[in-house]
Amino acid sequence: MKIDKIKKIVLAYSGGLDTSAIIPWLKENYNAEVIAYVANIGQSQESLNNIEDKAINSGASSCYVIDLRKKFIEEYIYPMLHTGAIYEGNYLLGTAIARPIIAKFQIKLALKLHASAVCHGSTGKGNDQVRFENAYISLAPNLDIIAPWRQWKLQSRQDLLKYLKLKNIHTSVTLKKIYSRDENIWHTSTEGGDLENPWNVAQENCWITTKNLINTPDNPEFLTLVINKGHIISINHKIVNSLDCLNKLNKIGATHGIGRVDIVENRLIGIKSRGCYETPGGTIMKVAIQAIEQLVLDKECVKWKTQIGLEMSYIIYDGKWFTPLRHSLLDAIKCLVDLINGTVIIKLYKGNVIVVQKKSPNSLYSQELATFNEDKSYSHKDAEGFIKILSITSRMRATCNDNNDISNLKN
Fold it and tell me: Where is ATP bound in this sequence (predicted)?
């Protein structure tokens, strides 16, 4: 990277402490124009208030705020949901799935403005540096990438606050901030502070979206959700678009304490980290879609989808969204998603999402076949031939002299 050739930089800007310090640092060290780019993916309105003014006051020449909420849901969240991707069995990938869309539109803006470089505020310890830079390289390999946390001498929150004070740049952030948070319409993540010790119980100030179970309603709430090709299109008989749907389910789910997860996960670079995640609406959506899948997908399809979901969880977590493998996995799941049509009634109560009724025009479930009562469509005698064929290999192995399982019975 030749610093003297970098004249214009597009920074992924959040308005927080890190990126507020990055703007003057870039100007000081690169003598370049800095353009702030903000992706609106459903973070709190408070964090977006006056964000353009914050960026300009920190030294940016301009600030672009791009509303990506619907694209985020329809082109990233739903495809992820359809594969069933869940990282290490618990994490609904709220931060990870947001990075490719943020990076894509940052690159689009950089190319439009003829920028020389793009910049992010991710640290050298986390996953996001890989996710952002993998996306940058995949989409615009000729752009230079600047990662201040791997270059500057600032090492702590105290250092950043001192630096901003030296540059006479106002910030509302103080040393009293306990946690590191990431927020979008899909989830809120909380890390750092007392959570760094996994023996410490997550205090109530850790959770900012969902209610404590003690404060949730004592009566359950029922939702009727209509699903068309894997998309929720109606809540309680009212048609909703993707954005309104997730907003409404977030609000309802949070009221009932839905979607809290406290886990220790394996970061991409090998460090274990603890995260407290809140995904109220997403948890409801996941359960509803799975309920219809149970009716319409046969055993082999469920097995195949499980394999796709596992692979996709690593694709998303490891920042490999813009790869042929990701495209391949989504192509593989599409024919199954087209079958996911039906209606689900869900009961929400004290942190639980419980499916109580479900139906689908594509259902493979047959009450006549499944019943324990007398039926005329199935002959129990047919199972004898099926078991004989299925157990041919087991019978052959049982006759072998070196069958360890039989030897153990004799000892």
Answer: 12-20, 39, 121
Is residue 40 classed as helix, strand or coil in its secondary structure? strand
218 in catalytic set: no
Spell out a b/e string for 90-106, using b for 16 or more CB atoms within 10 Å of the CB, else e. Answer: ebbbbbbbbbbbbbbbb
Known binding-site residues for L-aspartate equal: 123, 127-128
Quick: pLDDT tens for 34-57. Answer: 999 999 999 999 989 999 999 999
180 catalytic? Reply is yes
Inform me whether the pLDDT recorded for 259 exceeds 90.
yes
| CATH number for position 80 | 3.40.50.620
Dihedral of the CA atoms 245, 332, 326, 36 (nearest 10)?
-30
Residue found under tokens 């943020």: 102
Catalytic residue, chosen from 58, 116, 122, 180, is 180
The whole-model pTM stands at 0.92
Average pLDDT estimate for 94-123: 97
In our burial notation (b when 16+ CB lie closer than 10 A, e otherwise), range 349-366 reads: bebebebeebebeeeeee
Q: How many C-beta atoms lie closer than 10 Å to residue 122's C-beta? A: 20
Question: What total of structural domains would you count in the chain?
Answer: 2
One domain for residues 270 and 167: no
Q: Residues forming the annotated binding site?
A: 12-20, 39, 91, 121, 123, 127-128, 131, 180, 189, 265, 277
Q: What is the pLDDT of residues 338-354, one digit of tens each?
A: 999 999 999 999 999 99
CATH classification of the domain holding 185: 3.90.1260.10
Element (DSSP H or E) covering residue 11: strand 8-12
- Is 262 one of the annotated active-site residues of the chain? no
Of residues 69, 116, 122, 128, which has the active-site annotation?
Answer: 128
Q: Which residue has the tokens 């540059």?
A: 167
- Domain residues for the domain of 92 are 3-177
Residue 50 three-state SS = coil
Q: Which residues pair with 33 in a beta bridge?
A: 8
Of the ranges 148-152, 176-180, 190-194, 255-259, the best mean pLDDT one: 255-259
**Quick one: what percent of the chain has pLDDT higher than 70?**
93
Instruction: List strand residue ranges (DSSP E) for 178-259, in order.
Output: 180-183, 188-191, 221-228, 231-235, 238-239
